[in-house]
Design brief:
370 residues, alpha+beta, Gyrase A, domain 2, Alpha-Beta Plaits, Elongation Factor Tu (Ef-tu), domain 3, 8 helices, 20% helix, globular, binds (6S)-5,6,7,8-tetrahydrofolate
């Protein structure tokens, strides 16, 4: 597949780490939240996958922008836009939460951080949530402030992330629970650090607000990182599919509802909290979903998914679309994520797919893969 250069401009924002990762060997970017997201470093994607699963990487994920909502009515507004019940949410915790509109369509699948009773960060997937939230706040007359906070996250992912972070920040980091956050001192500033990140190999995310001290922390990790075989990296397509971490715009989008996406545990219809799309979701739930996000295993050795690829059954009936996929070294075949229509969403349903002019067979499975 031919690749093309990306033309940088002010509109396509760089990050505080761009000059660093360009020295560290970044070779490709994508665009996410109007910003540069590295997708490849020197070496193959498969090398980076094995390294991520065995060691530790630091990623520039500044594209995970924070929409801050603060003020008297902020809790009301945050609850209005998510179907996850946040009424018992705690300060110092992160919540993976579907954001939906009045028709229960998915606007974003961010991580929500509760900083205070009246202060929230919504750590966006690729979606212009700020405009949606502002429109609602204006229409409802809510007393809130909504803006993009000046925060640039770097992520430390991999099985050796805890040892690396402990070496630099001390033993208190070990007390952080999954999806918890706290403030840690480095270089004369306090940094919000969460135990989270877009891999299933364990790790942390540093929500960098103080650039000088934050960049010093980034540099310090690389200064001491050799012992842990630290390398620069980025979200890894192979690992994230294997781990079933969904990518907004790829696996799921504004045409889907959260029940189709398998977000059932983040859809709370029985409590009395008020949110957009609640009645619609109740209707969808009682009627049953008509499509479902599923795993696919394909007897092929490579694939490049740049759009949707149609899937058929053995009698050539259209059954759904593959939305992302990659060769997986552990399964030794291509695995992917697909939206499958009723009545075909049975586990083990056989599928046919055409990749680059050649037909292949495969099977559906439940998510997650492992
Ligand atoms: N971290 C932060 N912001 C983000 C992402 C992130 N914004 C964009 C994108 N990633 C949002 N999407 C996801 C998808 C999955 C998870 C986090 C963000 C995730 N899910 C776990 C899982 O599915 O097992 C845990 C969910 C839970 O149980 O609460 O981590 O990565 N800051």
């Amino acid at each position: 597949m031919k690749n093309y250069l990306i033309s940088k401009s002010r509109r396509l924002r760089g990050t505080p780490y761009t000059s660093r990762i360009e020295k560290q060997g970044v070779t490709a970017y994508t665009v996410y939240n109007h910003m540069l997201l590295p997708t490849k470093f020197e070496g193959t994607l498969e090398d980076a996958y094995h390294h991520l699963k065995g060691h530790v990487q630091v990623w520039d994920v500044s594209v995970q922008r924070q929409t801050e909502i603060n003020g008297k009515d902020s809790a009301k507004l945050v609850q209005l836009i998510t179907c996850r019940d946040l009424s018992k949410s705690k300060i110092g915790r992160c919540y993976y939460a579907p954001i939906i509109d009045h028709k229960a369509k998915l606007i974003s699948d961010p991580v929500i951080l509760k900083l205070a009773e009246d202060r929230w960060w919504i750590s966006l997937s690729d979606s212009d949530l700020e405009l949606f939230a502002k429109g609602l706040a204006i229409g409802k007359g809510y007393d809130v402030n909504i803006f993009e906070a000046k925060v640039d996250i770097f992520s430390v992912q991999g099985p050796k992330s805890l040892s690396l972070m402990e070496k630099v920040l001390g033993p208190k980091i070990k007390e952080l629970k999954f999806f918890g956050f706290d403030y840690f001192e480095f270089g004369g500033s306090k940094h919000l650090i969460a135990r989270s990140g877009w891999s299933k190999q364990g790790g942390f995310e540093v929500y960098m607000e103080h650039e000088e001290a934050g960049l010093a922390l980034y540099d310090k990790l690389f200064e001491v990182g050799d012992e842990f075989n630290l390398k620069p990296g980025c979200p890894n397509l192979i690992e994230r599919i294997e781990s079933s971490l969904l990518s907004y715009g790829n696996d799921i989008d504004i045409g889907d509802n959260p029940l189709e996406c398998g977000f059932d545990k983040y859809v709370n219809l029985d409590s009395d909290v008020e949110f957009l799309g609640k009645e619609e979701l109740k209707r969808v739930k009682s009627e049953g979903i008509k499509r479902k996000l599923m795993g696919v295993k394909i007897d092929a050795q490579q694939i490049a998914v740049n759009g949707s690829i149609n899937l058929y059954d053995n009698s050539k009936n259209f059954i759904g679309e593959l939305r992302s996929g990659s060769y997986n070294p552990m399964f030794k075949q291509v695995i992917g994520i697909a939206m499958i229509n009723k009545p075909y969403f049975n586990v083990s349903q056989e599928i046919k797919i055409n990749i680059d002019g050649k037909d292949y067979s495969g099977r559906l499975c439940d998510l997650p893969f492992i």
